[in-house]
Amino acid sequence: MPRLRALFLTTLILGIASRTLPGAGLGDTAGPVSLLDTESNDLVVKNYGERAATVFVFLSSRSDAVAKTIADINRLYRKHRRLDVLYIGVCSNSVESSKELRDFAQKRGLIFPIFRDPTARVARQWGIHAVPAAVLVDSTGKIAHLGGLESEEVQLALDAAIINKIKPVVEDASVRPTPIDQPGPKRVEPDVYGAVAFSSEMVFEKIAGAPAHHCSTITVTPRGDLLCLWYGGSYESADDQTLFLARRPKGSRFWESPQAIVHNAQRPPGNGVIFVDGRKTVWIIWCRMESSRPRPRGTGWDNCRLMFRRSEDDGHTWSADQKFLGDDMRAVPRNPPLRLANGDLILAVEAYVPGRSGSAFFVGHDGGTRWTSAGFATGGNQPAMIERGDGSLFALLRHAPRLVQTESRDGGKTWSKSVPSKIRNPDAGITMTKLTNGHLILVFNDTDTARTPLSVARSLDEGLTWETPMVLETNPGEYSYPCVIQATDCRIHVSYTFRRYSIKHVEFNEDWIVHTERPN
Question: 188 in a domain, yes or no?
Answer without folding.
Answer: no
